[in-house]
Amino acid sequence: MPPMPAANRAQEPSTWQKLKMGAMMGGGVGLTIGFIFGSYSILRNGSGPRGLLATLSQYMLSSAATFSFFLAIGSVIRNDTLLPPHIEAARLQLLPPLVRSKAEGAMLVRARWDAERARSTTA
After folding, report:
1. How far is the C-alpha of 84 from the C-alpha of 81, rounded, in Å?
2. Is 0.85 topped by the overall pTM?
């Protein structure tokens, strides 16, 4: 099957779009969890001096803010790759896994540090 022309290919969402999507999903999950736990807490301990609606909304909003923050960051971290997903998948299937000893890893790190030092002294 020939490759599809570039105009018909679906474009992946940008990092900003993934951040917003993660924040919105986290907000929805947080509102739901805040409603469940807030309702349980109000039924068990009472609503307190602020009243039922204020207490429940505080639970819901704090839970939504926390979940949306962490899901937004998680979606950006998840998106942080150098290769497109289809090339990364091909690389993982075709190349053998890289397993090195601690000594080999330390030698590679030292070589990279030396290269960075040489680059920074010339610049």
Report:
1. 7
2. no
